[in-house]
Amino acid sequence: MKIQLRFFASVRETLGVTQESVTVPENVTTVGDVRAFLQQRGGVWAEALADKRSLRMAYDQNMTDAATPIQDGGEVAFFPPVTGG
Q: Has residue 21 been placed in a domain?
């Protein structure tokens, strides 16, 4: 399944990327699974998306939680709890 990723504010700054298209394995079926999948990249990815770090998530531009299912062509976004202009 192919999805779109978007990163905002300090998450974007840490990762050095604003958006990305990625094909996820079959076992990645929720927004939380996407976060865990990206953490496996290690380095700044593990740091920016760490479980201990408070992050907000959105799926198809709607605020969501880790249990939200994803679909092919969907968009998952990550950002800190408070972002500025």
A: yes
- CA atoms of 49 and 46, how far apart (whole Å): 5
CATH number at residue 12: 3.10.20.30
The structure's pTM equals: 0.93
Token digits for 50?
């760490």
The total number of structural domains that make up the chain: 1
The residues of the chain scoring below 70 in pLDDT are 83-85
Q: Say how many residues make up the chain.
A: 85
